[in-house]
Write a structure and sequence with these properties.
By secondary structure, the protein is mainly beta. Helices cover about 15% and strands about 40% of the residues. It contains one helix and ten strands. The strands form two sheets. Strands 3-2-1-10-7-8 form a six-stranded antiparallel sheet, with no helix packed on it. The chain has a four-stranded antiparallel sheet with strand order 4-5-6-9, with no helix packed on it. A hairpin with a 5-residue loop joins strand 1 and strand 2. The radius of gyration is 16 Å and the shape is globular.
Length: about 130
């Protein structure tokens, strides 16, 4: 009975991450970019796009700003800076989402421990 309860509790906790992807919304007039490390897919405002040149390098120029991201065996990391717009960097693993928002010219940095699956990084402008 105890193992069954623990298993059901785990399913309930993981269901939002397995059965539905909570979206990272963007403000009117802004943009949001996402890179999914599991599938290699890149999206802008929810629409799949070709990866920008150098997306797997440490720094890309997307959405009018500078974006750096990576996943290691220990951390999922996203850094974004925009000179003229408020912006954010967001990271997600299979269990949590963390968002850092900043005003123009100040870098937004978000980090979480990486997990075996579900690691994603985002940038956003407002």
């Amino acid at each position: 009975m105890k193992k069954w309860l623990i298993g059901m509790f785990s399913i309930v906790l993981c269901a939002p991450f397995v059965f539905g992807n909570p979206s990272i919304a963007h403000a009117a007039g802004g943009e949001v970019g996402e890179y999914d490390y599991d599938t290699g897919a890149y999206y802008v405002n929810g629409e799949q796009k070709n990866r920008p040149n150098g997306l797997l390098k440490s720094i890309q120029y997307v959405g009018g700003g500078k974006w750096s991201h990576y996943v290691t065996s220990n951390v999922v990391h996203s850094w974004y800076n925009h000179e003229t717009k408020s912006h954010s960097a967001t990271v997600k693993n299979s269990q949590k989402t963390k968002k850092a928002s900043k005003g123009k010219k100040y870098p937004a940095i978000a980090e979480l421990p990486s997990t075996l699956w579900g690691n994603k990084v985002y940038w956003n402008t407002y």
